[in-house]
Specification:
With 427 residues, this protein is α+β, with helices and mostly antiparallel strands. The chain has 14 helices and 15 strands. Helix 12 packs antiparallel against helix 13. The protein is elongated, with a radius of gyration of 34 Å.
Length: 427
Amino acid sequence: MLILENIVLAFTALISNKMRSLLTMLGIIIGIGSVIAIVTVGNSLSNSISSSMESMGANNIMVGLQAKSAEEDVTESGMRFRGEDRNRMPEEDDYFTKEMLQAYAQNFPQEVKTLSLSQSLGAGQVTRATAYANVALVGVNGGYFAGTDIKMISGNGLSEKALSGGNAVALVSDYFVNNLFAGDTEEALGKTFEVVIGRDFYTLTIVGVYKYEQTMISFTSEKDTQTDIYVPITYVQKKNHLVGKYTDFTVVTNSGVDSSKFMAATRRFFDRWYHNNKNMEVRAFSLESMVSTMTDMLDKVSIAISVIAGISLLVGGIGVMNIMMVSISERTREIGTRKALGATNGSIRLQFIVEAMVLCLVGGVFGVLLGIGGGALGAKLLGYEASPTISSILISLLFSLAIGVFFGFYPANKAAKMNPIDALRYE
């Protein structure tokens, strides 16, 4: 009952000195608001990255070739000489072959759902009258669409016949159609266009339109955005004169596969071909590990910035202590009267600690509201969905209460130790 009465007294004191209370709470409001806003934006960014990676297949494994690191030769006298430079691109004999990939898929039938293959032919531009579209020409196989979240808008996509035969057909984005065909997908289907990449020209026929999903922040307009044109990978390989040879591929795994263990098994499998290769070695990594690394990094950055923002809470706490000292000085006769009527030191101390806690809690509530609003605005400006967490809100409110106890204890203890006779004499 005593605590409830003290809470009522605290709110009465807060209301009777609105401006002073608001200025006192300002440090708490700014500190809590900054922390909540930073955590909200950080969570929004992490969730966006995670969802983007998941849509791309977070459990999938990317396998590729990389140059073996150069070693140092050490002479008998201890002099060191850098070995032969290994920073080189794969040569034709170093590539993965179609036979290697078939053997790999057959060796891991429980883990491998399909293999996603893609090869770039470069970036260029397509023009139609005065309109244009920036594009990148990418050759893909049938497994590529199993490993990516591509939504078709119109058309039938790349057929098995076109994929195996290397036909000059293409899937284009809705951005491409908006730029060159005024958004009319039906008009675009069946149309032939020419892609200019450097000094080369590639003539293709549109067989489908997919919806372009932007996966990262872009500062270019929709008109100037570069989108991919998907063609059969055999078409690209014919142009590159490397049919059946690959520098990298993506393993679309079945559900439940432990990507970290399977990466090691993948490297061991291909070591039979690359163990004695002097130039190249096999690397493997998964988006899952990348997501984990990126979210950990973002969390650490958010914590570091939150700690810096939390310094204002210290300033706010000092302000609370200062105003409580002023309040006690103003209410010295009140304290003396209460002690003369039998109030114990503990009840006096509790009264002023509760008052400090209420002051900080109200500031914390305003700070949380400010932080959620600021975080939502920041996330919206970055193009993400706001993701405030209940845990950060509760921790912030508990922390504001802790500040009230910590910075309110000294003034409250000073009030509790007042001599009632001296307090009654105070003018």
